[in-house]
Predict the structure.
Amino acid sequence: MFNFDLTEIDVDLRQGGNHLLKFMQELFVQYNNYLVGEEISREDLYPCMCDCHQGQRRKSMGCNKCNYHHAETRIYRYSAVYDLVSKFVTQAEQENPETAAVMLLGVAKELMLQKEPPQVGQAQDPTEVLKSAVVQLMERITVTLQKMLVLHNFPNNLYRKFVDFFKALVFPPHCYCFANRLNILPWHDYLLTSVLMGQNITGERTKKGKKEFLWEPLPVVQARVERLKDEAKYRPLVRYLKAVRCNDSLLLKVLKDKIPFYMCKYGDFDGAAQVLLNWKSVDCCIVCRITPAEFAVYLKMFRTRSYPSGNELLSQEQWLIHPNSALKSGTTIKLAIQMLYTNQTLYRNPKCWSSLIQTWCSKTILGENGELEPLSCVEPAVVFQKDILHLSLGVLEDLKQQIHIKLPIQFSLLNFEAELILAVQAVVRILLDLDGHYMLNSVLEMVFAFGSNIWALKLLLEGISFSENLLYEFSTAFKQELYSQSLFAQRMWNNQGPVYVSQLITIFITHNHAVVRSAAFVIMNIILDHFSQCPWTPYVANFLRNRVLIVSCSVLTPLEQHELKDKIAVFQKQNATSPAIGK
């Protein structure tokens, strides 16, 4: 059947032939049963509309017009053959490539030889009709063969014989569309090779005065992507995805959306940043389609110049670092803010705001467990903060307009602190923009995202203080989430220690607005609810007495002062046998 030489026939090919011969015997019996058909009455297929049936007259009374309709007829149901072939194809897909190729090509030939007898009526199930069922089976068979020819290294002579065998089949009219399905470019094709090696970046060439393009069907593209990923050839993979064209533009776009991820895997973070926002070969930039979870991963990759070792962006694999990769100063913060401005889903998602804050409150080197390590930035001078806040207004406006800018030179003086202030201002502008149009949530997560950088959280509160309505919504949501997630909050405070808790209470209780100050009392109430688990409360009591009651007492009402004194007194009574503060 395949014209193999004796030297070419190995165990795999012989096994495929044995499976095929056994199947052909079963198919012969089932196909003959299909050709025999079954006798049924025509009225079982569709009702008779003759006038003689009006008034519920009995059919036995006879009718000269519709005797033909009540006669027996023969129908042919292909579904049993379809099920048999489908089961065999499933078996072939589980075999090794050479065995599977023999089995699939053999069954394809048998399908091309089958004929459909004429019959009355039309079945609702497409698998009962030979033509539609064969088209479904051939679609599955050819897609599997396409992927096999790409994914596996068949010997050249065997590869050629498989393709020639398929091309020699006599395709009936309903299968003409499959005739050229296996005309796939081999890996050594000149055009494909030039693209993979970077010699041709467009996938176009002129041959004998005629322009040619690198065009491949979607299953072939998917198979090439899978193989290049498995072989960790990410640079050729990026070149291929940028150049290839396909019959399914939507699914091809899904594959191309991962180009920035693949570029990060070989260390081109600057190039990945440009592709995320400025790739013009699609109708919309890639950022428009990324999810909040992907946004957080991209920020982590660009911040730490690292990447997950797996081939999926959201995989839980170990993270690896590119020690020699370079990233221009300010690129990551500009990219992060532009991503928020470009994608409205990210723009309106509080978790994305938290991801932005958390990333810039983290070190640029991953921890041993592959997670972000908290970064404590010393609070800059007030003059520096005001200077950066003023410059941030212009920077954010330019980024919103998608203008390529360079951060002002002042940002280079205290790089981490300046970029954190810019990130905070970006969140402030978003909150003010969405004020009254969006129900705030995940506020507790946002507050904890600042880590020990309480001074930056203070900037956020000061920024949203221009809108009393927003300040009220923020504080109310924060208090509600504190109560609903009190155990989580308590664990965070125990991990951060008494200094953090003291500073957190202070920035809330010294705020000018009473609704913000009330959040500080909620924090203290939750601490009292878990008093036995908080051995560090004496430290908090001393801190609040010295920093709030003595220094900042003017902002508190008499009632608030009295309540604060009561809380401090209770905190001070913590059992003296408790562990040392901070332990």
Notes: Residues 485-583 form one domain. The chain has four domains: 11-37+76-182, 185-256, 276-468, 485-583. The chain has a mean pLDDT of 88. The radius of gyration is 35 Å.
